Automatic annotation (TrEMBL):
SUPFAM superfamilies, sorted: Ribonuclease H-like (SSF53098)
A Pfam family that the UniProt record links to this protein: HTH_21
The protein, known as: Transposase InsO family protein
GO molecular function terms attached to this record: nucleic acid binding
Matching InterPro entries: HTH-like_dom, Integrase_cat-core, RNaseH-like_sf, RNaseH_sf, Transpos_IS3, Transposase_IS3/IS150/IS904
Annotated organism of origin: Actinopolymorpha pittospori
Domain named Integrase catalytic: residues: 125-289
Organism lineage: Bacteria, Bacillati, Actinomycetota, Actinomycetes, Propionibacteriales
Domain of life: Bacteria
Functional summary from the UniProt entry: Involved in the transposition of the insertion sequence.
UniProt xrefs under PANTHER family: TRANSPOSASE INSF FOR INSERTION SEQUENCE IS3B-RELATED, TRANSPOSASE INSO FOR INSERTION SEQUENCE ELEMENT IS911B-RELATED
GO biological process: DNA integration
Gene3D superfamilies attached to this UniProt entry: Ribonuclease H-like superfamily/Ribonuclease H
Length: 296
């Protein structure tokens, strides 16, 4: 193509025949290339437009989306585009999704408390919302000290139904997250809540709340992160996609977490559901339970 372009740029001075002979290319090939240039330039312009749309989707996801979710977002907007083309454009223009980083566990088991049985057994699926939840705690570093976040996530939709933040990680933190999930999640009686064996979850206060809400408690083994992988996976997503590593204040951390969970994750972030395809957690809950009344 470089040689064809050279012929195009200099044929007025030296003639097509002479240049093609010197460059050892056929005139028919050059004329075929010239005839196809308008179409090729039109395709290049269309690709530039698509690349702009891809970059905007990537930017709106705070740099989180890789090829699968960018492609799914394009398809949801009515853009019929081949996934391999999206992959090529993102590779050529160095548009990459975020790679999650490992997090340090906060789990401190209470060796004096009897653990609940493992009712999940690493099967992080659910046939319908409101039947199986997972929960965990993580820490957020701020200039004012550690700030802790507890969550309660529905395994059917991966929606964060309940969450709470505090400057401690005592039982009250996880109880508040559980109560929020119960209030907004339309949980069924005997709904399972699964966690690790941290002292917050084995406490008398938390177990009393589980009983009061007619739920069943489940726990993984000590020191085995894979037994609560779905809950830990959410924190990996949050810390990778939220961007901030150290907040200036606890208030700033709370504001960012609220925006991430309630605006970006639950309502905008696409996830591939085995039955529904690429949907947001909130859309999944609506489709599984079309008569659900959503909390504000």
């Amino acid at each position: 193509m470089i040689r064809f372009r050279f012929v195009e740029d200099h044929h007025d001075a030296w003639g097509v025949k002479r240049i093609c002979r010197v460059l050892e290319i056929s005139r028919s090939s050059f004329y075929a290339w010239r005839a196809g240039r308008p179409a090729a330039e039109a395709r290049a312009r269309e690709e530039d437009v698509l690349a702009g749309e891809i970059a905007e989707i990537h930017r709106d996801s705070m740099g989180a989306y890789g090829v699968p979710r960018v492609h799914a977002t394009l398809r949801r907007s009515g853009r019929a585009v081949n996934r391999k083309k999206v992959e090529r454009i993102m590779r050529e223009r160095r548009i990459r999704g975020i790679t999650r980083r490992r997090r340090r566990s906060l789990t401190k088991a209470d060796t004096t408390a009897a653990p609940a049985p493992d009712l999940i057994a690493r099967d992080f699926t659910a046939k319908r919302p409101g039947t199986r939840l997972v929960g965990d705690i993580t820490y957020l570093p701020t200039a004012q000290g550690w700030y802790y976040l507890a969550t309660a996530i529905d395994l059917a939709t991966r929606e964060v139904l309940g969450w709470s933040m505090a400057d401690h990680h005592r039982a009250d933190l996880v109880i508040d997250a559980l109560r929020m999930a119960h209030a907004r999640g339309d949980l069924e009686e005997d709904c399972i809540f699964h966690s690790d064996r941290g002292s917050e979850y084995t406490s008398r206060e938390f177990r009393s709340e589980i009983h009061k809400l007619t739920m069943r408690q489940s726990m993984g083994r000590v020191g085995t992160c894979y037994d609560n992988a779905a809950a830990e996976s959410f924190f990996a997503i949050l810390k990778a996609e939220i961007g901030t590593e150290v907040w200036l204040s606890k208030q700033a951390a709370r504001a960012d977490v609220f925006t991430f969970i309630e605006v970006n994750y639950n309502r905008r972030r696409l996830r591939k559901d085995p039955e529904l395809g690429y949907v947001t957690p909130l859309e999944a809950r609506l489709r599984y339970s079309p008569h659900t009344t959503l909390a504000a």
